[in-house]
Amino acid sequence: MKTLPEAFRPFDARMLHVGDGHWIYVEEVGLRGGRPIAFLHGGPGSGSQHLHRTLFDPARDHIFLIDQRGAGRSHPYLSCDANTTAHLVSDLEAIREHFDIAKWLLVGGSWGSTLALAYAEKHPERVSGLVLRAIFLGTAEEVEWAFLEGPKIFRPELYADFRDWLPAAERSEPLQAYVNRLCNPDPNVHTLPALRWFAYERALSEIAAKPGKLPAEVDAASRLPPTPFVEAHYIRNNFFLEPGQLLRDARNLAGIPGHIVQGRYDLLCPPRTAHALASAWPDARLEFIETAGHAMSDPGVMDAMRRAISEIS
Questions:
Q1: 136: nearest Cα among 112, 107, 110, 116
Q2: Which residues, in sequence order, are bridge partners of residue 106?
Q3: 22, 52, 62, 294: which is the annotated catalytic residue?
Q4: Which residue in 250, 304, 309, 286 sits closest to 61, CA to CA?
Q5: Residue 89: what are its φ and ψ, rounded to 5°?
Q6: What's the CA dihedral at 63, 64, 68, 73 to 10 degrees?
Q7: What does the pLDDT look like over 141-162, one tens digit per residue?
Q8: Active site residue 17
Q9: Which residues, other chains included, contact 92 with Cβ-Cβ below 8 Å and sequence gap of 6+?
């Protein structure tokens, strides 16, 4: 990727011990003492990226980019021990207290929106605002849609490739079959499923994905993607949320200004979820990007997020 301007480079970075053997990587970008903002990456398990820094105004904002447990530069890498939604919410509170922040703006997309909502609903008094993209509420129905029902309708050839690699006896429950393999510690069992899962999810996230087959063998030069493993852990445990919890507790967001940026043709996190959240949260504005899917890199998405972050109080 292109080198970012000096203003977007971290002025500090540290590892914070949050207990349970976990150390959380936090980098600070922008204006020390400026408007505090926490960026929450997706996945779960993807980690913060350099590009995420460019959503913000470094002359105004004090941005904290946080790698969640098991993700990015946090340690231990890919650890799913003591790694739940409640742990991640607790980590955010520990980080806020460490930096002596009274209130902060939370920004996140996809799983990052889930975590932001879980935190804000538990600690509304600590949140000045929310800018969210591609709403995901952590329900079984959303997972079924994202990996099974949606692809069957919109990418049937891709779904067939995903399913038919499995033995015939497992094809009736392909999601469970992949999750079981991804949760197996043996690399001979989980490596190829991880590569296939990653390619499948990536193809579903792009508005103009290139046609092609999912990997059929392990390429020794391929880097093992982190997100399938952490995602499988969270899927297996229903994202450590009660059924319908985040929508039910959206009443706790009353008085918190919000802006939701939603791709109209997002196959992984469809618009109906964002609409349901906005209906339960009167202080939020819902903005559809008419030619976008799930990816933050789709045209118009990052520009809309930048505007929202700039305008929200």
A1: 110
A2: 38, 130
A3: 294
A4: 309
A5: -65, -45
A6: 100
A7: 999 999 999 999 999 999 999 9
A8: no
A9: 38, 40, 66, 115, 119
* Digit-coded pLDDT (tens) for 55-81: 999 999 999 999 999 999 999 999 999
Task: Specify the amino acid at residue 182.
Answer: L
Q: DSSP letters along 12-23, please?
A: EEEEEEEETTEE
Domain assignments of the chain as residue spans, ordered by start: 6-139+241-311, 140-239
pLDDT of 132 over the 80 cut: yes
- State the catalytic residue, choosing from 61, 91, 161, 266: 266
Q: Are 142 and 269 in contact (CB under 8 A)?
A: yes
Helical (H) or strand (E) element with 258 = strand 258-263
Question: Cα angle vertex 242, ends 250, 65, to 5°?
Answer: 65
Determine the average pLDDT of the residues in 292-308. 97
What 3-state class would DSSP assign to 153? helix
Q: What is the 3-state secondary structure (H, E, C) of 173-188?
A: CHHHHHHHHHCCCCHH
Whether 1 shows a pLDDT value over 60: the answer reads no
| Interval 253-291: pLDDT, tens | 999 999 999 999 999 999 999 999 999 999 999 999 999
What integer best gives the mean pLDDT of the chain? 96
Token pair for 294: 């799930």
CB atoms within 10 A of CB 149: 13
From the candidates 79, 110, 113, 205, which is the catalytic residue? 110
**90 catalytic, yes or no?**
no
CA distance 231 to 146: 13
pLDDT in tens, 19-52: 999 999 999 999 999 999 999 999 999 999 999 9
For Cα atoms 64, 60, 45, give the angle at the middle one, nearest 5 degrees: 20
The CATH architecture that domain 6-139+241-311 belongs to is 3-Layer(aba) Sandwich (3.40)
How many residues are given for the chain?
313
Catalytic residue list contains 98: no
Percent of the chain with pLDDT over 70: 99
